[in-house]
Amino acid sequence: MSTPVYLDHAATTPMVPAALEAMTAHLATAANPSSLHASGRRARRVVEESRETIARALGCRPGEVVLTSGGTEADNLAVKGIYWSRRAADPRRVRILTTAVEHHAVLDPLDWLAEHHGAEVELLPVDADGRLDLAALRASIERDPAGVALVSVMWANNEVGTRQPVTDVVALAAEHAIPVHTDAVQALGVLPVDFAASGVDAMTVTGHKVGGPHGAGALVVRREVGVVPLVHGGGQERDIRSGTLDAPAIAGFAAAVELAVARQAEHAARMAGLRERLVAGVREVVPDAVLNGPGPDAWDAERLPGNVHLSFPGCEGDSLLMLLDARGIECSTGSACSAGVPQASHVLLAMGREDAAARSSLRFSLGHTSTEDDVAAVVEAIGPCVERARGVRF
Amino acid sequence: MRVLAAMSGGVDSAVAAARAVEAGHDVTGIHLALSRNPASYRSGARGCCTIEDSNDARRAADVIGIPFYVWDMSERFHEDVVEDFMDEYAAGRTPNPCLRCNEKIKFAAVLDKALALGFDAVVTGHYAQLRTGADGLVEMHRALDHGKDQSYVLGVLDQRQLQHSLFPLGGSTKTDVRAEAAERGLLVADKPDSHDICFVADGDNAGWLREKLGDRAPNHGGAVVDDATGEELGRHEGTYGFTIGQRKGLRIGRPAPDGKPRFVLDIEPVTGTVRVGPRERLAVHRLRGIRPRWCGTRPTRLDGPEVSVQLRAHGAELPARVVVGGEGVDVELDEPAYGIAPGQAVVVYDGSRVVGSATISETGGES
């Protein structure tokens, strides 16, 4: 079978050779980075050098990098850990403000905090393109600023690629000294991401979205921000995240982050070019396809360059995905399906789409392996697939 | 052919899919998600709708080496099967949701979608045999393994549906299918058979209906009455908890004067009355079926020596004469049948061949 046309980089992007090399170099030399002997010290050195590499690339201090198993853990650690810490310091702080379009790794911990830990979670509205309504955020903060434990707003959306006004969020929150967390998993490597310059207090990143391995990520968090740990044990990572450090994976993660940040501008420009041709090509064949999220007049400033999220009226996204998959084209319906049952995307619903429109969508996400040929393959296949999918009564 | 394998997560559908691949078809596996909230479905007695079952189906597809997807049929299933199940019980009838699911979901919604997407047929793990008859039509026959035969629940399929169906297990025994699954390395080889109704957790129909029907229940209680004397023998908590022929759970304090067990003879949802009496009063000699569905050409009269009917899943073959007319079918049984509930299906056979089916609307005693 020929190599698939892989257009699901927002889910996982293939490892880059530099990361693979860095990781495999350490896989065979087993030692616990917490051990005191020479082998342990060698492993620890790998971890610390990796941490420094990551810090340099992300614009933070090495001591601010808390290594985790990935984005979901980092998001959980941020929202739960900071909430608990802030509330412990002042019991009035029970409010958590976030957007209705966050990843489930943020939304579900918040639901859980609301249900079990007295949190009052507010899902702030977004506009039709998925952008946070800043006025709503301001109003919400000002209603009771002393009661806000945390604001969490993603850097860019994983489904429709919409960038959030993180700088403005930070400015609003700063007026009341409220910490801000951002999930920058999708932004890293395609947008300039500088932790210190952004002014956020905590930031989630992960390896497998930037060409690193699965199972390695980080919460970058300012030293002044208290974080109550989720995982207790050996006291690694400033006692915020216990667990034996995975030196090979961390080395791979660091190599990927370093390369992704170094190549970011060039990569973004190339993705934007492919994106433009993909959208234009698909709409030529399927004129009524609807691009969700910021369109051509705004996408340079407001959208991830590699994200193409389209609704195909009259089609079920699942049918289209299957038909494209059969032709070797791999994409996503962009919706969570933890239970195996596809649900209409909460992101599209928050953007005001009808349930049917939300279920007629596909996400094509471009990445470092994407080529003009990949775009051409989609443009060639999409017409017959849409025609076929429209024959399905649902 | 391009074939869609409906995979429940059980051993039968897994082996059926594997055999379809071996027969040279281009097979794609799907698992039907029938609940928006699958965690709420059964996990104990194993139906076919839990997340675990979906994972079992996925692993079987991996082993067989076919693509696999989950199709969300939860809305259609709720509308066409679950709602109908509730309505029928509320009306004092006893529905068979498995037939309904085959008629409305597996061989309708799923088949239609499959055909629209470019597939030629749906393959399932049902035990029934298909062959082409002298007239060129596809005939459905009982499975070789009579103990596993599922032609009864497929009796609702019409010719078009049969033409696009494959049942590769019809000529096998369950024992052989399990052995084959083990040989093929399918981990579901030892998975227990599913029983009961997949959407009723723990098999407690009455409890499930009580919770789900709520205000739609025709009554929340009434009298259990001796059919012969009219005497009230006890109280019940809703007629929907009963089915004709039921003996257990009647909660009658006193035994019958003759000491014989009593059975539900009739259910009256409007008055909330459940009538009970001795077994002989359950005897059904004639019945009428509505909404007939024919596997092939619609017959007019079936009275050959090979003609029989089956009145419940895994029920006996009952010799009968069948007259088709107007909107329904009239069935005369050679020997009486007992505990026949309106709402159940009557499936008509000529020898091993399924002729068609209808929904029982009325039953009658000796004329």
Automatic annotation (TrEMBL), chain A:
<feature type="domain" description="Aminotransferase class V">
    <location>
        <begin position="5"/>
        <end position="377"/>
    </location>
</feature>
<protein>
    <recommendedName>
        <fullName>cysteine desulfurase</fullName>
        <ecNumber>2.8.1.7</ecNumber>
    </recommendedName>
</protein>
<dbReference type="InterPro" id="IPR020578">
    <property type="entry name" value="Aminotrans_V_PyrdxlP_BS"/>
</dbReference>
<dbReference type="InterPro" id="IPR016454">
    <property type="entry name" value="Cysteine_dSase"/>
</dbReference>
<dbReference type="InterPro" id="IPR015424">
    <property type="entry name" value="PyrdxlP-dep_Trfase"/>
</dbReference>
<keyword id="KW-0663">Pyridoxal phosphate</keyword>
<comment type="similarity">
    <text>Belongs to the class-V pyridoxal-phosphate-dependent aminotransferase family. NifS/IscS subfamily.</text>
</comment>
<keyword id="KW-0411">Iron-sulfur</keyword>
<keyword id="KW-0479">Metal-binding</keyword>
<keyword id="KW-0808">Transferase</keyword>
<dbReference type="InterPro" id="IPR000192">
    <property type="entry name" value="Aminotrans_V_dom"/>
</dbReference>
<dbReference type="InterPro" id="IPR015422">
    <property type="entry name" value="PyrdxlP-dep_Trfase_small"/>
</dbReference>
<dbReference type="InterPro" id="IPR015421">
    <property type="entry name" value="PyrdxlP-dep_Trfase_major"/>
</dbReference>
<dbReference type="Pfam" id="PF00266">
    <property type="entry name" value="Aminotran_5"/>
</dbReference>
<keyword id="KW-0408">Iron</keyword>
UniProtKB/TrEMBL annotation, chain B:
<keyword id="KW-0547">Nucleotide-binding</keyword>
<keyword id="KW-1015">Disulfide bond</keyword>
<dbReference type="Pfam" id="PF20259">
    <property type="entry name" value="tRNA_Me_trans_M"/>
</dbReference>
<feature type="binding site">
    <location>
        <position position="32"/>
    </location>
    <ligand>
        <name>ATP</name>
    </ligand>
</feature>
<dbReference type="GO" id="GO:0103016">
    <property type="term" value="F:tRNA-uridine 2-sulfurtransferase activity"/>
</dbReference>
<dbReference type="InterPro" id="IPR046884">
    <property type="entry name" value="MnmA-like_central"/>
</dbReference>
<keyword id="KW-0819">tRNA processing</keyword>
<feature type="region of interest" description="Interaction with tRNA">
    <location>
        <begin position="148"/>
        <end position="150"/>
    </location>
</feature>
<comment type="function">
    <text>Catalyzes the 2-thiolation of uridine at the wobble position (U34) of tRNA, leading to the formation of s(2)U34.</text>
</comment>
<feature type="site" description="Interaction with tRNA">
    <location>
        <position position="344"/>
    </location>
</feature>
<feature type="disulfide bond" description="Alternate">
    <location>
        <begin position="101"/>
        <end position="198"/>
    </location>
</feature>
<feature type="site" description="Interaction with tRNA">
    <location>
        <position position="126"/>
    </location>
</feature>
<dbReference type="InterPro" id="IPR046885">
    <property type="entry name" value="MnmA-like_C"/>
</dbReference>
<feature type="binding site">
    <location>
        <begin position="6"/>
        <end position="13"/>
    </location>
    <ligand>
        <name>ATP</name>
    </ligand>
</feature>
<dbReference type="Pfam" id="PF03054">
    <property type="entry name" value="tRNA_Me_trans"/>
</dbReference>
<comment type="similarity">
    <text>Belongs to the MnmA/TRMU family.</text>
</comment>
<feature type="active site" description="Nucleophile">
    <location>
        <position position="101"/>
    </location>
</feature>
<dbReference type="InterPro" id="IPR023382">
    <property type="entry name" value="MnmA-like_central_sf"/>
</dbReference>
<dbReference type="Pfam" id="PF20258">
    <property type="entry name" value="tRNA_Me_trans_C"/>
</dbReference>
<protein>
    <recommendedName>
        <fullName>tRNA-specific 2-thiouridylase MnmA</fullName>
        <ecNumber>2.8.1.13</ecNumber>
    </recommendedName>
</protein>
<feature type="domain" description="tRNA-specific 2-thiouridylase MnmA-like central">
    <location>
        <begin position="213"/>
        <end position="277"/>
    </location>
</feature>
<keyword id="KW-0808">Transferase</keyword>
